[in-house]
Amino acid sequence: MEDTPVKYKMDELQTKAYRLCLLWDKLARKEFPNERHSRLRKTGDPRKSFVFKCCYKLVRQTLGLIPDEEYKLYITAQLHIMKIQTDGIVHGLVTPQILVGDKAWRRWRVWKKYYEREKIKPRTVEELDVNPSLVLVELNRTKKFLTKELGDPPKYEKLEDKIKDLTFIRWVTVGKISPYYVLLSPFVKKLCGNEYEEMFLFDFDVYKQNVCQEVKEYFKENFAYEF
Questions:
Q1: Is pLDDT larger for residue 139 or for residue 198?
Q2: Alpha-carbon distance 5 to 145, whole Å?
């Protein structure tokens, strides 16, 4: 099966998705040996299989968010949580649909924290070296980016779409959107719920220390459309 990507002229992302399909099949059978599973089609182009479509979506959604060596851990985490939720008995197929979407990402963030048995080490205030004026600069930069991507003013519905497909999380991770916006935004809190911090690759405790009254007032004035 190693020559399948070559046979069907798969590009890099498709090849990665195909390998995740094989990994999914192995891990799903290990965790649920007595259940029925979604499988790759035995003949023809595997890209037409539901399993491939889910794994390809996973690759695209988590590009730059999950290192290649952690995908096995990611899939295992989703299967373990499914086993806990169902007491190991699935009424229907065990499908890779559990691997994609914002709920899957939240499950992964929570599970990984327990797996590592400690939070990602936050930077200290000294390392961040911020003051209120720098926080305002970050918020202003974030607003310009959101306006460009989501409309003027940025639309709630468009932000919802970007959160669902994990694009928003990627924007925060790569620095296009400030963590301070995540902390202060009513839109984000409404869309992500009380556990919104679990969705992101940050420990927000240090950032919270820099959200003073001046910052809060600036946000309410310049992001008034969210209130």
A1: 139
A2: 38
